[in-house]
């Protein structure tokens, strides 16, 4: 199984997204991508994280960055979550966990005393040429947006 490392090119991928779209990495050459992986739509932490990205969309746009939220939820569930929270960015449906595995975000977690596999909240920045620049793992929702924005501003 291949996983990525900082400074490595990210293999081109194709994935279903909200808005009846198929997102391809190669279509975003010339823009930075911020991919944030989160466990599940319509849960408190994931909603708070998405709202933080939503509320800072103008700053991300000014930094030539496109945001995508990614979880294992279906496109249909994503559509409802996106509409309810008025997210101005697309959500990607990684139901087969291909992107989750590529970025190594599927981890064993304890949930109600049981071991389950779930998404570890993580964010990745890919540069204009498709190279992985930065990663944050075990993200803390409250401080995360300021960390991502500060990093992107340091590149400007």
Descriptive notes:
- The structure is a single chain.
- By secondary structure, the chain is α/β, with parallel strands linked by helices.
- It is built from 5 helices and 9 strands, in the order βββααβαβαββββα.
- The strands form 3 sheets. It has a 5-stranded mixed sheet with strand order 5-4-3-8-9. It has a two-stranded antiparallel ribbon with strand order 1-2. Strands 6-7 form a two-stranded antiparallel ribbon.
- A hairpin with a 3-residue loop joins strand 1 and strand 2.
- Helix 1 runs parallel beside helix 5.
- The longest helix has 15 residues, at 141-155.
- It is globular and about 45 Å long.
- The N and C termini lie far apart (34 Å).
């Amino acid at each position: 199984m291949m996983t990525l490392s900082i400074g490595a090119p990210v293999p081109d991928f194709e994935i279903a997204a909200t808005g009846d779209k198929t997102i391809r990495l190669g279509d975003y050459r010339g823009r930075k991508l911020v991919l944030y992986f989160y466990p599940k739509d319509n849960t408190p932490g994931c909603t708070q994280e998405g709202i933080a990205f939503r509320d800072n969309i103008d700053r991300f746009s000014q930094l030539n960055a496109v945001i995508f939220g990614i979880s294992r939820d279906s496109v249909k569930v994503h559509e409802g979550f996106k509409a309810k929270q008025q997210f101005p960015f697309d959500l990607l449906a990684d139901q087969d966990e291909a992107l989750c595995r590529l970025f190594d975000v599927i981890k064993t977690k304890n949930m109600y005393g049981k071991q389950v596999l779930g998404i570890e909240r993580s964010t990745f920045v890919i540069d204009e040429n498709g190279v992985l620049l930065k990663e944050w793992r075990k993200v803390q929702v409250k401080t995360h947006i300021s960390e991502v924005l500060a990093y992107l501003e340091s590149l400007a």
